[in-house]
Structure formats: C-alpha cells, structure tokens
Amino acid sequence: MISILSGGTGTPKLIQGIVQIIDSDDLNVIVNTVENTYISGNYLAPDIDTVMYTLAGLINEETWYGIRDDTFITHETLKKIGYDEILRIGDQDRAFKIQKTLLMEEYPLSKVVDIQGKNLGIKARIIPMSDEQSEIKIITDQGEMSFHKFLVEKKGEPEVEDIIYNEVKPSNILIDIIESSDMVIIGPSNPVTSIGPIISIPGVKKALKKAHVTAISPIIGGKPVSGPAAKFMSAKGFEVSCFGIAEIYREFLDKFIIDTVDEDSKKKIEKLISEVVTTNTNMKTMDDKVMLARSVLGEFL
Q1: Inter-residue contact 8 to 194 (CB < 8 Å)
Q2: How far apart are CA 185 and CA 216, in angstroms?
Q3: Do residues 258 and 269 make contact, with C-beta atoms less than 8 angstroms apart?
Q4: Would you say 16 and 286 are in contact if contact means Cβ atoms under 8 Å apart?
Q5: Is 163 within 8 Å of 145 (Cβ atoms)?
Q6: CB-side neighbour CA atoms (13 Å) of 201
Q7: Cα angle, residue 88 at apex, residues 41 and 194 outer, rounded to 5°
C-alpha cells in the first residue's frame, strides 16, 4: 500500500503518473485541509477537490483547479447582480461544493469525501488530514490575511512575515494509514502551507519515522515550480532550495529526489538524507510524470 501526502499543485501531477503504474486500489492520498473555507455559503476544500478531480480524470490541467471545460454561468450571474466571489467557481465544480456542504450537516468531512469519490468511480482512497476545521493566517507587510485573500485577491504580492495555522486532530484513520503503508510519498507541494500542516498534526511525525518515506523537491534551481513557496520558506527561515526542503523533512526522510539541475547540491543534502536521487522532476508531459513516478516508487515496483 502506497500513501501520498498532497497539496493541490505539483503532487496531483505526480499522482497522474503513479496511477499509470500501480493499481489505484493500493493508493491512499492524504490531503491538506488548512485552506478549506466557505465561499458563497458553500464549503470549499480546494486541495481535496483538485486531488479528487485528478483521480477522476476531470481536472482542468490549465489551472490545476476546477473541472475541465466547466461553465461559469452562476459565477458570472452573481457578478452581474452585484456579488463578486473571491474565486471563479465553475458550475459543475460548484455542484460538488454544494453537495459537500449539505452532506456535512450529517457526516464528517472524511465520510463526505468517501461518498463523492465513490460516486466518481475513484478506487484510490482520499483522506482529509483532519475532520476539524483548519485555519491559516498569512502575516504580511500589509497585515494579516486569509490564504485565499493573499493568493487570489492580492495575487501573492505582499511580503510575507509569518504563516500561522491552528493545530487540529488527525482524521480517524490517518495515523494507522501512515504506519501500515509500505511506502509514504511526500509530493512536490508547498512544504509550508500544503505539507507542513499535515506533518504538524499530533502523531504524524512519529508515524512517518516508522514508515519508509520518499519526498520530491518542489524547488528546482532555487525556484518553486509554481506558487508562493519561496516567500513562505523564507518567512519560516528556510533556504529556498532543495537543501532547504531537505532540512524541513530531515527528521523522517529515507529518500529524497531532486532535479538534475541541482546535482551540485547532492553531496550537501546527503549529510542530512541517506539516499538522494537526481532525475527530471519538472513534469510537463505524461511521460515526465510516469518517469518520475517510477523513480519515486523504485524498489517498491
């Protein structure tokens, strides 16, 4: 059984490659929930939805958010009548958010995600990191902001001074899933706001130390492949490099995969992580995704 720690960008691309190689029945995806919130009265779980749509073959690969070829009639109508949503939400995507909101009146988030995954024919198990409501605050030179205000409304432009998220309990099966996995993969998602909240949950680091853990660096040549990871890493005092990523995960990491452009950092990283592999980690095509997945899975194939 393989388990993946995932955010909403980077890791879903890797998941596309992994499901070409192994049976989805053997796959668990543990997903960050710290960015979950309510918009227009509906429950928004952006990273969960991106993973779900990826596994269902529905993801919009131009944005890595929402459903491919969706329409935006509701969003545009709301704007026309004077309500401007902070996020542009498609009509089909909104239907899943409405269903989540209604189901959560009766069930915890993990059960709701199970229901939606089964309705979409997804064989892999998607596991929210927690059923409790998570919160994240971005402290900037322009004041405290929600994650979505910083990223969408402010376009990630303010200088970041700190990132704070609350401690939540793990979802019921989270720790058992990690400990019973043959391999745990930390995907190339933002280490501070996507993976950080998962590994900060009580019991997760201890469980990871018992597992065989492989991580892929989301930093290539000193720059993040996408998103504001550089600002967030700097705010937390980490070098914006694959070495900085290794420092974050060093407590429990067995194998670390970095891009070939970072070959010069390999010896330095080997002082922290016993096995360091260099390969192409920039997933532009399906062939790239499958090749990286093979490198990640290695001896477990």
Answers
A1: yes
A2: 8
A3: yes
A4: yes
A5: no
A6: 30
A7: 80
Give the H/E segment covering residue 92.
helix 91-103
Instruction: Give me the pLDDT at residue 135, please.
Output: 84
The average pLDDT across 77-100 equals 94
Report which secondary-structure segment, H or E, holds 145.
Answer: strand 143-146
pTM: 0.94
Q: Which whole number is the average pLDDT over 39-54? A: 95
Token pair 């998570």 in the structure block, residue:
134
Q: What is the pLDDT of residue 301?
A: 67
User: pLDDT per residue over 204-213, tens digit each?
Assistant: 999 999 999 9
pLDDT of residue 153: 83
Length of the chain: 301
The rounded distance, in Å, linking the Cα atoms of 144 and 223 is: 25
pLDDT tens digits for range 183-195:
999 999 999 999 9
Question: 3-state DSSP: the chain helix, strand, coil percent, rounded to 5?
Answer: 40, 20, 40
The CATH H-level (homologous superfamily) assignment of domain 2-129+173-300 is CofD-like domains (3.40.50.10680)
287 Cα distance to chain centroid = 21
43 DSSP 8-state letter: E
Q: Tell me how far apart the alpha carbons of residues 153 and 171 are, in angstroms, rounded to a whole number.
A: 31
Task: Please answer whether residues 51 and 31 qualify as being in contact, where contact means their C-beta atoms are separated by less than 8 angstroms.
Answer: yes
Domain ranges in the chain?
2-129+173-300
Which residue type, as a one-letter code, is found at position 253?
L
pLDDT in tens, 99-149: 999 999 999 999 999 999 999 999 999 999 999 988 889 999 998 988 888
Rounded Cα–Cα distance for residues 230 and 281 (Å): 17
Q: Is residue 30 classed as helix, strand or coil in its secondary structure?
A: strand
